[in-house]
Amino acid sequence: MRVGPGTLRVLGVLSVLAATVSACGTPTPADGNSLVLADGHELGGYNPIAGYGAAGEAKMYDGLLRLGGGTGLPTFEPALATALPTADPTATTWTVPLRQGVTFTDGSAFDAADVVATYRAILDPASASEARSSFEMIDRVEAVDPATARFTLRYPYAAFPTKLLIGIVPSEAVATPGPAAESTLNTEPIGTGPYRLTALSPDRAVFEANENYWGPVPQVKKLTLLYVPDDNTRAQRMAAGELDGTNLPPLLAGTFAGRDGMTVSSNTSADWRGVSLPSGNPVTGDPAIRRALNLAVDRKAMIDNVLGGYGRAAYTPFPEVYGAAHNPDAVFAFDRGLAGSILDAAGWRAGSDGIREKDGRRAAFTIMYNSSDTLRRDIAQAFASDARKVGVEVNLEALSWDRIEPRVERDGILLGGGDEPYDPDTQAYKTLHSSYLRPEVGSVYDNASRHANPAFDALLDKARRSTDPAERAAAYREVQTAYIGDPGYVFLVFLDHTYVAKDSGWTMSGPVLEPHAHGVTWGPWWSLQTWTR
């Protein structure tokens, strides 16, 4: 790890925190078959109908498919399905054979009716699910018989297996339509997964092995998750021996390197960080500002000094892991001279204080970032420094998400993305396609720049609907070329997620490509249910 001012700062913080550790009555690692992990993400919200576990990370639920680990893009493996789904020649009808003899944690039997009920509830407008738009290609779901489900799509969709990772709930749990956010599944999940939730409070969740699991019963019998939103506090509690593991920003994680009995690890992800540039803002809506900022930012310095080397440069939302669908030529050179020339040509002239102006308007805008995320803070500060070097003033505001949301249309955000990275479609469509400008479609953070480009839409739709791998890959490469000519964001980096764990005698399965959700449901613990001694 490269040591710089940021590293020294977190070392000092960690030293002070460790020196002031006091007993706080929280769980400590108890025995060889239990784990206590701390996470920065709130507990609860365990409802697949609302989108929970869409990337297959839920431990209380099984999807029809699950991920296989390894380097590169993961494979798909049968879970509640007995085999991978088969598609008809048009890729619009997909048939899934289902496992028999499986029971939910409430004792009810699993069959095709539960598959139908789960997907119908996600698609039901009454559920008000933010995940609904991600499944809009599904026209209908039917039970052919108790052991077979059939999906009929509105158009060919080669990436459909990615939509079979989300957990299945019992039909009885969604029999009454209503908002997914108000469902009891959020706090009392009922699934077929390897673990069941046995206790939940705002700062603590306890999961125990499902002894009636249809597959091998987990050898890790108990998992306790603690909600600790502050990065430095998680580091303090890890140093004090209260935890078996946690996720930490890379420089803070690096302070544990070389400690006896602890391991720092990192997993490659498709999780990007970048800045939204709202098209409705008179400064960030100017194409010259957008292009100049993409050229002005020093991505390598961010990776070295903010990420401690744990990351890769991002110019578009497509990482190299997509192989033929990745366009290695779709990059922005680091060229502040060219950035200045572009701004000069567009009429943005430097004022007496070095900040540019055009038609009496100052080249200034605000970037918001989540106040509990120190990594976003540090990336935002680095971006603001780079922007000022070409005469653009970036003001930073640390806010909670509920205060950020109402301002998405007019102010920039230090964003993260890559929620479902297991196909280029699910990685990029929501980020770039103009259909998400409609308020009723998706989340407020989808296409947060509110940028519409018909060429992007046409190419993304072509790739989404094609069943020819070569044609899909070519369309995605074209999207990236087109994006470089008309950027709507400043994509900055892809993260390598970093974790600290106590050494143990467990045999683990190895890493998997990680999505944006990078808490302790991922990292070394993503396949916890398969660990053996």
Automatic annotation (TrEMBL):
Keywords: Signal, Transport. It comes from the Bacteria. Residues 1-18 form the signal peptide. The keyword Signal applies. Pfam families: SBP_bac_5. Residues 76-434 form the Solute-binding protein family domain. PROSITE patterns: PROKAR_LIPOPROTEIN (PS51257). Belongs to the bacterial solute-binding protein 5 family. This is ABC transporter substrate-binding protein.
